[in-house]
What does this fold into?
Amino acid sequence: MFDEINYKDDTTFRTLRKIGLTLYESKCYVALTSILNGTAQQIGEITAIPRTKTYDALNRLSDMNLIEKIEGKPLRYRAKSPVDRLSTIKERIMDDFNSTLLDLQNRWDNRSDVAKQSIQLIYGGGNMIDRTISMIDKAKNNILLSIRFLVDEEIELLIKSLRNIKKSGVSISILIFPELYNMLDKTIVDNLSEFASIHIAPVPVRILIVDSDDMLLTVPVFINNSIDQSLTQSVLFRNSSFVSMIKKSLNISESFMDKV
It folds into this structure.
């Protein structure tokens, strides 16, 4: 029955694959639509499918309500009306397709230029770390980083990223919150000092400004004196006069800060 079928080009098999059936399931289903009923062994012989795979395929077809089991010994299987069953699946697929089409069209109608979005909210400590490293890696001229807190997972990544970008001639200034500075391992401060100008600064939030264009402002959430990364929220400002204003304020303040 199946010896001369090209499964990739045959319309029936190609369509059955599109609605979610595997090749083995498609073979079993087509076989059952061609006979009144049959045992798993008979279906396996018709389709040349391994016996264990035949049982798996028939059970899934039964779960999908495409076939039914006829109790007895041995257990037999019978296909339900393809018009009834596949029409139901077709309607569900078309409903999903139409819903998807409307959703995508709505997105397209209201699309925006990401490059022109001036503000973006970022949730979670992990996403904050990823965006921090990404911004540093894209710096061309200067970086100003005010550190209110550091997450253990990011220290090594941060040092590595800053060290690499410094090799490209990027100027780096780091402002460290006093309490954080007193808590930091001296090795970390020494590593940062190798490629950055470091000052102690009482800035209550974490700020990263890259090339006077982009700024990532992060407000930590402390629970029992520990940062809850899941509640950490950041705001990314792009190409904003607000970024320039903040940087000027920090640069002016830097001259009055204690240098490390």
